[in-house]
Amino acid sequence: MKARKRTKVIYVGGIPIGGRNPVIVQSMTKTDTADVKSTVRQIQSLEKSGCEIIRLAVPDMRAAKSLSKIRKSVHIPMIADIHFDWRLALEAIRQGIDGLRINPGNIGARWKIKEVISAAEDKEIPIRIGVNAGSLEKDLLRKYGHPTPEALVESAGRHIQILKEMNFSNIKVSLKASDVVKTVEAYRLFSKKYDHPLHIGISEAGPPSVGIIKSSVGLGILLAEGIGDTIRVSLTAEPEEEIRVAYAILGSLGLRKKGVNIISCPTCGRCRIDLKSLVKKVEHKVRNIDKPITIAVMGCVVNGPGEAREADFGIAGGKGRGILFRKGEIVRKVKEEELLDALLKEIDH
What we know:
By secondary structure, this protein is α/β, with parallel strands linked by helices. The protein folds into 2 domains: 10-252, Dihydropteroate synthase-like (TIM Barrel), CATH 3.20.20.20; 261-348, Sulfite Reductase Hemoprotein, domain 1, CATH 3.30.413.10. Helix content is 40%, strand content 19%. The protein has helices at 36-49, 61-64, 67-71, 86-94, 110-122, 138-144, 149-165, 180-193, 208-224, 239-252, 275-285, 304-307, 339-348, and strands spanning 10-12, 15-17, 24-28, 53-57, 78-81, 99-101, 127-132, 171-176, 199-200, 230-231, 261-264, 294-298, 313-317, 321-326, 329-335. The chain has an 8-stranded parallel β-sheet. Strands 11-12-13-14-15 form a 5-stranded mixed β-sheet. A hairpin with a 3-residue loop joins strand 13 and strand 14. The longest helix has 17 residues, at 149-165. The radius of gyration is 23 Å and the shape is elongated. The two termini are 36 Å apart.
């Protein structure tokens, strides 16, 4: 795995992004931002799940004016996601937002862009340029024929140039598409050309059954190549699931360690217990443990401890009986129906 690319460091709230800082996990609320109560409830749930930055859609002034009320009840930095309307960006800044996601080239007149940039500078608020394959400029679509990686990078370059001409460099960039290969190549091309920190993700990845696969492949490739400073897993699911998957991806690459890592065998002819059911029960029972531990749930008493030698704790089932082990060493034998309780007690101990 390649070392992380050393990008410029920016701050969203008090969180450093870029350089060699940890890859930050983000999500986006799926509530009506103007519904303060529901939005706060969702963000607080996301905070408990490990979300470190939250983005909120701001489609109108009603939503923009709700931001300060939300801000008072949450602890993680908030980013306002705005399209086209410079007045919404100004109001979001007045409301105490920590970051903006807005493309300067879509705001309109130059004086409007300047007002937004001046307000962002005064509050030291970064701007994320978010290029999406589904909303590329018409002339770029004519030039390239369709949203190619090169078109995505050229679009991002245009927006960056506008900000640089106004001496604004507090920038983060994303280049997203629902196509994994296209997204990966766009980030690769951009990373070679620029050193702005990158927010990576696969756009509209889909329901968990396919979205987790697309996100794991695409983000895994980029992160393994040292590309990416913040991530969001975009799923048609509850946002807490996005956080869980994001940390699983980072954990699989050794980039972040949070919560329990469960390893379990796929079962074979040697398995004499209902391993699938046991794994589900273990997963449910340990879901709120925040310590970075590895738990093994194996179906074979003979090979289980050896195959899961590096696990902090583990259980392996046999016919009617099983074993509890730690770091590959057997702690004791237990009845099959007591395996789960024995594991949980050992973890607590």
